[in-house]
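re: that chain from earlier
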Amino acid sequence: MANEYDLIIVGMGSGGMVAAEFAATLDLKIAAVERDRMGGDCLWTGCVPSKALLASAKVAHHIRTADHYGIAAVEPQVNGGRVWDRIRTIQQEIAQTDDNPERYEEMGVEFHWGPARLTGPHTVQVGDGDELRGRFILLCTGSRPVVPPIEGLQDAGFLTSESLWDLEDAPQSLVAIGGGPISVEMSQAFNRLGIEVHTLQKGPEILPRDEPALVEILVDRLRSEGLDLAFNVETQRVTVEDGVKVVHGTQDGEPRTWRGEEILVGVGRRPNVEGLGLDELGIETNRRGVTIDARSRTNVPSVYAIGDLGGRYLFTHSASYEGVRAVRDMFFPGKGKFTSFVPWCTFTDPELAHAGLTLAEAERAHGEDDVEIWRQDLIHSDRARADSAPEGAILVVTHKKRIVGAHILAPAAGEMIHELALAMQEGLKFDEVGSLIHVYPTVSIGIGQLAGEAAFESAQRYRWLVRRTKA
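^ sequence. v structure.
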């Protein structure tokens, strides 16, 4: 039958696209169901537009602080409309090349456009039209921003990481609710574009999943740039006064208000499970998304779920990995090697990268006496000082000499973390990393220097073996 396939992929965002590309190399018959646009959150509302905005903001910051490099500093003339035009141009370039449906059709992927609903363990209904049948179904429908139940918020209007990119120009001022990666990245970007920003965090710190020692340095950097970070905030209601949106709440128990032309809500994401027919099929769900096992399988053996829908890690790179792994398990005999170890990076400036356990997590897991911490502050990095970027540090956590955690706050931390992540995944001792000759002058040579210190420490135990000669 024309509508029978080896694999039906529901959702062609980051995970679905990579899964489709891998499956196409296996000579499988593949159907892709997409209700909106190719590229999903990453292209249209996530990674691509946010990093394009961060790049523009970084240029503005360098102009404003050019005196750090011996060049006259001036206040940049920011044209918000042109900044947003640049973002849309980049999105369209990607949509017309790498994320173009025609590219996937040339691989043999058949597209069906419309909302998808599972009607059986092997069948998917597309809108009011075709019913597709497949040996396996891969669900990768992503997630959407959570909207907190704050009185008056809906009436006042607000932005999320999705609607932010519908703007024609940047607002004059902004109140950002939330202290996670999206809110913090956008807060720094808007602040660098010359926009007054107030960032409100419910807890005592931003980025609570990251290494606190490095988050503290980042907070100082953000505040030095003029960003207003408010911790221990309870938001209570929103009003509109003279055309300005006012957030009412408390900070450390004391009444406060914050005013802005716009409000950006960044307090988490919710999986897109609605309308898929999961309950009718008996597929289990939870508050994080679809209930899956370690290999992304649901309780219905022919149905898999990955990415944000699976609720493990809400990252493009983990969704892509899970998509490939799911296809491998569907169609190859046996079960391939896989990992649940996922590094990540928050793309502030400097960037904050994370792999494995924080120091506190390692001490809880292995005992405080059995954990060592290796740290080099960027103030001791020749390259960081040459670049006038000394704020930050490299921090490595070891247990019995093996790396169990790595955290970097540096201008290119997202590029640097992979060396330590690979060493961690392969179970290397930290001093073994020092056997690799690192390029000088780079910030990443600090990793080699720290590993060298670990090697030197180990060598001290064998000093008695050193061959000595008399003069």
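Residues 47-64 form the longest helix (18 residues).
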